[in-house]
């Protein structure tokens, strides 16, 4: 992860999401700021963010990272792109010289793209089956409907970008994955420091800190502060 996702190649100056000062949307920054406000408010009113809702937010963060990783894999395979004319010509020349029937089948029509589509479907199925990609709980009434709509928009938007400009799409997704990874890593170390300090403070003052402050809430607020800071830097760097 450090070798491929945490290096200077993914710094703000090389952000493919900011082209000529244009940012696609401000939703990520708004989303993380709202989560921070809700978590801070939950310290004063426990009913705002119950333990179940905190678990959903944690699951959502994991879902973001794993789904982005999955999208990177799909963007590399890209079932919407066939052979280039040069590659097709070379392969046709090669198959004419040898008894390579399977290659002849691949070169016919859209068979190569169909094969890649099947591979993508199998990869997604494996991620879900193996528990790597856990879709958030959708059995939650109105919230479920909103979640389903957001996921559909997310999937549809990615498919459109994948078809329109696969190279730029891959760069954008890799940059996003890198930012998520670096945010997770930084949040992990900051959270450990804060949790240790809080528990030491609780031991000294004899205050039952676990009852007052939930560990997951600390991790969530640190992660969302780091993410909102990164999103703000991306917006600022574009202007």
- Note poorly predicted spans: none
Assembly category? single chain
SS-based class: mainly alpha
Helix-strand string: HEEHHHHHHHHH
Shape category: elongated
Share of β-strand residues: under 5%
- Helix fraction, binned, reads over 70%
N-end to C-end Cα span = 30 Å
Number of strands: 2
Q: Largest beta sheet: what is the strand line-up?
A: 1-2
Largest sheet: 2 strands, antiparallel
The count of helical stretches stands at: 10
Mean residue pLDDT: 76
Would you kindly provide a written description of the structure presented here, covering whatever features stand out?
By secondary structure, the chain is an all-alpha fold. The protein has helices spanning 2-5, 27-44, 51-77, 85-97, 101-107, 111-129, 142-164, 166-205, 209-212, 215-237; strands at residues 18-19, 22-23. The protein has a two-stranded antiparallel ribbon. Helix 8 (166-205) crosses helix 10 (215-237). The mean pLDDT is 76.
């Amino acid at each position: 992860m450090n070798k491929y996702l945490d290096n200077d190649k993914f710094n703000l100056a090389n952000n493919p999401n900011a082209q000529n000062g244009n940012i696609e949307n401000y939703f990520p920054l708004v989303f993380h700021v709202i989560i921070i406000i809700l978590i801070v408010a939950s310290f004063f009113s426990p009913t705002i963010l119950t333990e179940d809702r905190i678990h959903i937010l944690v699951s959502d963060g994991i879902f973001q990272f794993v789904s982005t990783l999955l999208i990177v894999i799909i963007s590399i395979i890209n079932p919407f792109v066939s052979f280039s004319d040069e590659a097709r010509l070379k392969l046709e020349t090669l198959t004419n010289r040898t008894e390579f029937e399977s290659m002849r089948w691949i070169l016919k029509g859209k068979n190569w793209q169909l094969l890649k589509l099947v591979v993508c479907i199998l990869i997604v199925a494996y991620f879900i089956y193996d528990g790597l990609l856990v879709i958030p709980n959708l059995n939650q009434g109105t919230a479920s409907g909103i979640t389903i709509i957001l996921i559909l928009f997310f999937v549809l938007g990615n498919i459109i970008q994948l078809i329109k400009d696969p190279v730029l799409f891959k760069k954008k997704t890799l940059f996003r994955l890198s930012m998520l990874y670096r945010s997770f890593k930084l949040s992990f170390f900051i959270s450990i420091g804060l949790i240790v300090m809080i528990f030491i403070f609780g031991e000294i003052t004899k205050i039952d800190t676990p009852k007052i402050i939930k560990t997951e809430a600390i991790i969530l607020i640190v992660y969302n502060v780091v993410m909102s800071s990164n999103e703000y830097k991306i917006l600022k760097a574009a202007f």
